[in-house]
Write a structure and sequence with these properties.
mainly beta; elongated
Length: 124
């Protein structure tokens, strides 16, 4: 069973930094895409950043130049370094895993997996 556990959220002042981490557990050989999404109150969940197993990164325009996504393929972890945070970055941040491969299988799991979410609040 695939589980994602996030950590690192909290309260930070505008202009500050936070680092989110996500660990994926389960009998997994590799994961195509790991990413972060966020959902602010009253809004839909939106993409923040994704990174492939080949380290191709994709960012939402609103976070480009401020956030950096990274991953460790061996440890099945993904991190999001958030700098120059703004009040509009306040949201629950969710870790995402898409394209999970299991040992001995050539086909990817069709399911997309999510963490439980971690709150990030940017406020003075």
């Amino acid at each position: 069973q695939v589980q994602l556990v996030e950590s690192g959220g909290g309260l930070v002042q505008p202009g500050g930094s936070l680092r989110l981490s996500c660990a994926v557990s389960g009998s997994i050989s590799t994961i195509n895409s790991l990413g972060w999404y966020r959902q602010a109150p009253g809004k839909q969940r939106e993409l923040v950043a994704t990174i492939t197993s080949g380290f191709v990164r994709n960012y939402a325009d609103s976070v480009k130049g401020r956030f950096t996504i990274s991953r460790d393929n061996a440890k099945l972890t993904v991190a999001l370094q958030m700098n120059r945070l703004k009040p509009e970055d306040t949201a629950v941040y969710y870790c995402n895993a898409d394209g999970v491969y299991y040992p001995g299988s050539w086909l990817a799991d069709e399911n997309t997996y999510w963490g439980q979410g971690t709150q990030v609040t940017v406020s003075s």
